[in-house]
Amino acid sequence: MGRVLTTWVGSFQEFLFLAGRAFANIFRAPHYYDDVAIQMDIIGVGSLPIVLLTGFFSGAIIALQMARALNTYGASSEVGSIVSLTLVRELGPVLTALLVAGRNASGIASELGSMKVTEQIDAMRALGTDPLQKLVTPRLTATAVMLPCLTVVADAIGLFGAYLVAVPLLHLLSGGYYWSSSWRALVLNDLAQGLIKPLLFGMIISLIGCFYGLRTTGGTQGVGHATTQAVVSASIWIFVATFLIDKIFVNL
Amino acid sequence: MSKPQEQPGPLIELRDVNLQYEETWALRNVSFTLNPGETRIIFGAAGSGKTTLLKAAIGLVKVDSGEAKLFGEDITGRKEQELYALRSRAGFLFQEGGLFDSLLVGENVEYPLVNRQIAKHEKPVKAEDLEGYVKETLRFVELEQTYNRFPSELSGGMRRRVGIARAIVTEPPLVLYDSPTAGLDPITANIIMELIAKERDTRNTASLIVTHRYQDGLLMANYRYDAANEELVPVGEEERDDPNRARTKFIVMKEGEIVFRGTRHEIEDSGDAYVKRFVRHEG
After folding, report:
1. pLDDT for the residue numbered A241
2. Which of residues A77 and A226 earns the better pLDDT score?
3. pLDDT over 90 for what percent of chain B?
4. Which CATH superfamily is B12-90+172-276 part of?
5. Residues 115-154 of A with CB under 8 A from B
């Protein structure tokens, strides 16, 4: 038990060290802008279809479920505000982050892991490039910028999905009232939560992916192991972080 | 491309270097010097510390104790970030080539040049100039036609040659080769070694070569590249066997220690059973 704890604390320390260096590198030359752009394309644009699909359906599903529950209290016209609060505060950021974690934490871990086991990371160091500067920092920046954008898109398409269910399909309320009530339900606190969460999740996903990728050992099997660990870890930390942020924002 | 300034002193200097992985010694009391223009061939059983020695020489692995100098600068105890500039002045060929598999061959060879520009905030060289220079280096390893191909499309030997091109594209005064012929058929292995000799003799590059093939060492010790006739010619006996004049010398490692150092003549005359394992007499 003691040994497991020591290993865990050791790993966590290494992770914090990696994170610290990656953040410090944002403000230090050389800057690899091309790599940031490429990663933004892979992470942001590449994740767009899956984020659109899941966003749309989660909005539609919440509307379906809520319509029934709200009907019991005769409040089915409030479906817009409920959907927008749930999506913007919680489901939008968390679902998007989990999708991106599944897609990109694994992608990053396997790419960096393969590079590690085929000596490409060492080759980079030998050629005089800091792998953290060239590989980790661009992924950190790209994910931290793109995840909030993806979340906003997911929120919007989710609201649209809910609209299709609530207005044309179930005729619960008028379209105008749906949009105005869902907009009015949101206060600054909700929007702040909805944007701070994905920013933080983006950092968690990219750093965890890089962390497990760069410490890969033991050939192809090691790469698979690193990939799995990265996705599991990133998903868990997304929930832990969301809980902590909620705790802070509920008290504000 | 401007050539990095020649150092007056040794390029690599290790003094009483020790490195231990748990119970195993990777390097034990290793002292070793490589001067400009010299060649050292390192033999040793698997796990005897050959690769670790190469990596320690440019600070890719941190040593536990002792002193390591690269281009005259102490690299022990220095931060990783401070070593990048120094390392980029040496060339390094990894065992499997270490090529970036997501980049084209041309981009791989171009990498050290672009990297140097970014690191030194130099003005970017025009793309066509860069391409010309990269193609010239690829021509040196006779692989110009692979410019637009991915490393995964090449054979093992070709990948190794691209690795050499990448290692020498900045015209470094020092190149380290980690098992350049491992896993290759004898003919391909010879082509690789001829290239290494050609690089050494056309640019007077200091070379540190880890290998398990005695022929590789022989080729480096017995021949030199004649640029005028574009062929390898045998070197004189004195230049080959005189300990004070020989530019190519052999080192044998065992369990992290250097157990032999000397000329071709001396290694072939050695009575030590372990050293003898690496020597195959000609004829």
Report:
1. 94
2. A226
3. 50
4. P-loop containing nucleotide triphosphate hydrolases (3.40.50.300)
5. 115, 118-120, 122-130
**B251 DSSP β-pair partners:** B42, B261
What is residue B281's predicted lDDT score, i.e. its pLDDT? 57
Q: Does B100 touch chain A (CB under 8 A)?
A: yes
Q: Does residue B99 sit at the A interface (CB-CB below 8 Å)?
A: yes
Query: Tell me: the pLDDT tens digits for A178-227?
Result: 999 999 988 888 899 899 999 999 999 999 999 999 999 988 899 999 99
Distant-in-sequence contacts of A39-45, Cβ < 8 A, 24+ apart: A39/A138, A39/A139, A39/A141, A39/A142, A39/A143, A40/A142, A40/A145, A40/A146, A42/A104, A42/A107, A42/A142, A43/A100, A43/A104, A43/A139, A43/A142, A43/A143, A43/A146, A43/A147, A44/A142, A44/A145, A44/A146, A44/A149, A44/A150
Token couple for A41: 């394309």
Which range among A69-78, A148-157, B22-31, B95-104 has the greatest average pLDDT?
A148-157
**Domain spans, chain A:** 32-250
- Across the interface, of B99, B102, B115, the residue whose CB is closest to A129 is B115
Contact between B206 and B174 (Cβ < 8 Å): yes
Residue A133: its pLDDT value, please? 93
Contacting residues of A for B180, CB less than 8 Å apart: none
Say yes or no: B124 contacts chain A, CB-CB below 8 A.
no
Chain B residues in contact with A30 by the CB 8 A cut-off are 118-119, 121
Q: Where are the domains of chain B?
A: 12-90+172-276
**Residue whose structure tokens are 């984020």:** A51
- What's CA B66's distance to the chain center, in Å? 22
The predicted model gives B210-235 an average pLDDT of 90
CB < 8 Å to A126, chain B: 58, 60, 87, 90, 92, 94, 98
